[in-house]
Fold:
Amino acid sequence: MAAMAAILLAAYLIRGITGFGSGLISVPLLALFLPLQFVVPLILLLDFTASIVIGGLNFKRVHWNEIGILIPFGIVGVVLGTSLLVNLSPEPMLIALAGFVFVFAVRSVLDIRGDRPASRAWAAPAALTGGTVGALFGTGGPPYVIYLTHRIRDKSDLRATFSALFFTEGLTRIASFLVAGLLMTAEVWTAYLAALPLVLGALYLGGRVHVGLSQAQMTRLVGVLLLVSSISLLFKALNA
Structure:
């Protein structure tokens, strides 16, 4: 329980700072000593709550025009990912995604980016990839993050848009988890209620840290999280 509390504190402190990253940190670590069928639904509920808290407090900063383009392609990606999960071996796709995310993570850490925003044409492949990988592995955030960080410059707008996007995606995943019965266990809801005060406190502290970050620091922090994500994806592929 102490290890679980420490992991959740670190994960949602990062989520409070950047608007994403809690699943990238918490799921691989918690899955080392807890069943994945317990971990993924629990983090889904906590992430959904975090999206409400962060997105709700910054409603005017959300770039809804960006989210509106991503969501339809993301839904298609979820359907595709579910089909792939049933029919294909996921390891080669995980390795390919890990390499893709790693390249963009290095770009963010070194702050290598042009002055012009990324073309909106990249919304389709980003959302398709994010939806597909999210359905397959529960870690669909990096493609969305890569795209939005190259579209939105303001760090507070970026943080709020992340949360609003993951809130919308969370609704779809909650519905599918309810149908599959993954959210119908007392253990998941008990752990959620027990962890909620810790998570809310971590989000508050992360929000305070976020205010003091410069745009360059925010970009590099996102890059570090993407590096963690790429390593986590590669680890999953090699140990599947």
